[in-house]
Amino acid sequence: MATEITKVRRHPERGSYDKEVLLDILKNGLVCQVAFQQNTLPFIIPMTYYNDSNYIYIHGSPVARISNTLRDGPTVAISVLELNGLVLAKGLADNSMNYRSAIIFGKPEELITEEEKMSFFKEWIDRLVPGRKESTALPNHDELKNVTVFRVKLDQFSVKIRKGGPSEVRNDPNIWSGVVPLSIRAHDPVFASDPRVPEYVKEFIERKNDEWKMNKKS
Amino acid sequence: MATEITKVRRHPERGSYDKEVLLDILKNGLVCQVAFQQNTLPFIIPMTYYNDSNYIYIHGSPVARISNTLRDGPTVAISVLELNGLVLAKGLADNSMNYRSAIIFGKPEELITEEEKMSFFKEWIDRLVPGRKESTALPNHDELKNVTVFRVKLDQFSVKIRKGGPSEVRNDPNIWSGVVPLSIRAHDPVFASDPRVPEYVKEFIERKNDEWKMNKKS
Lengths: 218, 218
Hints:
- Two copies of one chain form a homodimer.
- Chain A is an alpha+beta fold.
- Chain A has a single domain, classed as Electron Transport, Fmn-binding Protein, Chain A (Pnp Oxidase, Chain A, Roll), CATH 2.30.110.
- Helix content of chain A is about 25%, strand content about 35%.
- In chain A, the strands form two sheets. In chain A, strands 1, 2, 3, 6, 7, 10 and 11 form a seven-stranded antiparallel β-sheet that branches.
- In chain A, strand 4 (about 50) and strand 5 form a beta hairpin.
- The two termini of chain A are about 25 Å apart.
- Strand 11 of chain A pairs antiparallel with strand 11 (about 180-185) of chain B.
């Protein structure tokens, strides 16, 4: 539901508070941007994330600025952006981007036990690179101690989507307009310990490169 | 120079306060994330941007939440992220991303005159899609009135870069490790007013698709 803070004010027709849409945006993202207040000044930091249907999870070093700040439980704003295209309208002032944007607000809760942290790591990699979980060294006691994991409830959020062609105000038939679709491209591995690339890594690359085709349909 | 707010605390060896590096990160980016405080709560919003060597510029509707808030001149934090790869280390807790990240702090100043706003629009499109400026309808009086443009000085900032292979702690020769490079891919135009795609649009697509080769070298 739209609250005062999550309300989409500009182009409200592009806004939504639908949890299914939120989860669909979060599903393919690789990074989020976490904004919070530090000593009365805004701070922002890009982080990887994982989410299930109830929470978004971020993790970092216990000595990092964000860990120290988030432990105090301030409200954070987390942005996940999927950039889908550059919209070139006939009028320069009507140019835009096609995108799906999710913004989540909430107070971070720290995961305390080693079991919770281990579970986070396993689920994170299982979603990101299915098949990798069985082929990596799981974190040991010290590694789990040396990581902080926070979760924020997927409760207060808003999503905003722009898709389709240019919104034309100008009519000049001599001016070209259109949309240049943009997507993430994954390339063949580098710095590999072994030139024989595991199947699950090949599948990750293929899946990433196919995501934009799904977006086109939506 | 590193100040208390811009100081890179975690992995300081990855940090830099070099203006040339900042400008190089901003050069290819398409969107930034703007964080600010609204009624004691953090807010974050993705926006397109343009920058010259002194300022980063963002623009929006005068009725948008961000315009109303930024007009009061609060400090904002602006993040520009270039995602360059997924780093799969042997140890699950050592996974990382390759990236170049820039964070800029400052108080937004509003561009007031129509001349300033027109100049912003021309320079923005000229950098984004060289050749388009001569083939688009420039904003008229009403359009310039109906847009707010803010600039933030490139003065307080930090950049952070991770590149190269996995930082391995684990040694198991049976576990594969490596980096999956990621980049932005631009596709053939859709929703085009004319199937004959202008040369400058073809060049934009080609340039975007070649950027990752430059990153590989750096």
